[in-house]
Fold:
Amino acid sequence: MRSIKITVSLLMMMVLIGMPARAFAYEYRYEARLAALDVYPHSNLEAGPIVSEDEFYGKLLDPTYNAEIADIVETYQSGDAQGAKEKWHHYIVNRDDRLLMLSDLKSPDQLTAGDINYSSANRGLNRGHIRSGYEYYFPDEIDWNYNPTYYDEEVPLDNGWLWTLHNHASWMSMAMASLLQDGNEYGEELADQMKSWIATQIPGVRSVGYDFHDANKSFVNYNSVPGGLIRDEEDPFSYGYRDDNGSQMIGTSASWRTIEVGVRLQKWVETIYYFKHSEWYDAELNDLLTRSLVDQATWLAFPHHYTEGSNWGSYEAGGMLYTATYFPEITVQQEMAELAAKRLTRAIDGQVLPDGALNELSPTYHISVLNRYTAFIKGVRDGKLRGETWEQLEESIERQYSAFLAITAPNGGMPTGNEATLSKFAGSSLREIFANALDIFPEREDFRWVATGGAEGQRPDFDFYHLRNAGNITMRSGWELNDDYLHFTAGPTGSTGWHSFQNKLDVQLYSNGYPLLVNAGKHLYDKSAARWYVTNTRGSNSALVDGYGQARRTSTPMNILRRLADYFYYDGEGVSFASATYDKPYGTAGYGSILETADVEVEHTRSVIYLKDAYAVLIDDFKALDQQEHQYELLFHTPVGYYQQNSPSVTAEAVELADGMHWSIGSAEAVMKGISAAPFDSAIVEGLNPGNVDLGAELNGTGREKEMRGWLEHNTPTPTQQYTVNGTDVRFFTVISPMSQPDQLALELDNGGKDLVIVFEDGSRHQISLDDAGDAPSVEIQRGDHTIAFTAKSNLAEQVLSIASMREALNRYKTSGDLHDPLHQQLGNRLDQAEHHRQGERTKQAIKHMEDFLRHLTNNGLQHLVTEEVREELAQDAQILIEEWKEE
Structure:
């Protein structure tokens, strides 16, 4: 037995006395409506759906919606429950769904066999599921709580296998197949699977092969509610379970993990759109499905089941939005739609940076989030949603698409890493999202250019772009397929540890139609060495020190991400430049945490000089702050192994040179050569694994994995350039040039090893000087009689700190739930007083009020009203202003 409880008076009290923070008002309005309707008063639960027939037909169906719904409700209230189900089934089957769908789906009566993914449909028909290549078929009926990777010794445990089983990836294909000739077997099996899942999957069901509820995550965050207004024992969906030791467990099962619920709601709505026309979609199934959809959407509506400030939240709100739009006949439909839309709107502050990037800094997840925003805006414009439109989303959505435009390669792909696969760089992965963008922004001709591969629209008007918060910098020779493109990573880690990649200063290159220099991409969300490798510095084109990679914080708070990233940049005629420094700890990072911190005090600065008609020069400066000798190692991954394994039709090979490497992929070729004042070792790792580490095994320590080199995402060996030198302060030069003849250039050093001289086959010489002794790096490039000279700009120079910016931050953090009253109000009053005295040129009084601001902020009795990260940021900003005013 699992206890399902509700405290109606508590929910009503929350609304009546106005206790919740303003950001949560819509959540509590929805809960208050449920409480007023007296829905979910169960005392016990053994099988789904949770909402009873009496609650659904007697309370949730809205008799004022139309005459048919009124008749269904009246039929049920007369005691004819089966008759009400039959009428509800007839109503749903014959209802025109086109205006209720947020997805653009083909009409059921126009389907052909070519529209159906039969590979997916047949897998579902045979009760199979596949994730990242691991395929399993249940011998009898599906055990929805079983994870075969837990028992298969050939593969690491993949929690995601079970989670994604509950996304029901095959159901829509099966529904479509059931409508065509000989589709009965698909319809029968699909109906059986739906009934099985609904009956067995309720909050609290235990998953086989797990410590109860994957002990590391509960996915139910009661602390997210202001003031702790809801506790676990007051949660209408909470349950109690005692483990073998008698300990009380509170949480939810794998099938009710909130991101899966959000994804599933959209897929179920789209599946019903087709399946309701099948003979296997009967009154019983229609009743179960609709009640279960209401259960799941309501589960997500409660504030502690919503993931604030994460891509999860967009899936969750998106699922609610699809459900609310599809069922306008439900009494709580408008509150649910408003709540979902409000959360999506609120998520802008919680997820999207001022430069348009997602706070997780993962383009792959950003695409999914952006799709939810886009679907909502399209729904509003098409008149499918009742209530407010929240049109402020449009500006943010356009800004997000512009961020994708910045990183788009000439082939329509995007660089690897941060959960982006090599296939996304090799293919045109971003064109589809810009096709979606045109539905909202048809006037953006640069979006049209990318969406059509340059066949229509107008070429984007930039060749250099930097996302100033995310620190993603792109340089290119143009936008045609055969142009060059270079991507430089100069920003922080994202907001989520599990998706955090230790890849600062990474460089990737595309030329002549193919990616030529990539990082290792991504791997499964498991605890294998392959996953560890791709997320660590070894999997990037950056540097190791004494065998250790970067070990900076694995998750960066939103208040830090909103600030400008620390780097220098320049873009001029024929040349682009960027420079950034890694000055954080070194060690071993993995699986969203720091496993080991090394006793290494080294500062690494990488400067990228890109001559648009010739080559790129990387200048890597290592400074030993501890004055000790260290081993410095640069790594550069080619995608040769990827093409050899995945695209046998594309010629891909690499050749070792005395001082570098020459490689070719398809029609693209490149040469890399390096030089340093200190002698270095140069070698290609031809898919070898010097440490003999089993990539399928879990890492149990922090020693053996240090030897791993030369891999790509799914255990793919690849030629990888490796430069290693010992010293204290060392400067490396690396030249990367798309060219077919690798012997056309030689490298020399000048000015005591500080300058690079490139000597070409015809005897011409280019000399490159970098002076970083001043406030900003200065560069001089001598090309025969032509000289290019410039001083870079600091990205931080344009970061303005003022009373106005601090007031804006206070309001933003109150909205996000990081700062609460009365502290928010007290701090705002101090700022108002400081501003008043500043305007009157009374600097001493202004300083006093800003010092009062600091005292309020650090008051021990108020610490529960502000997060630690926000307190540190506001204190730092206040101190900066105080010091500035004292110097006036």
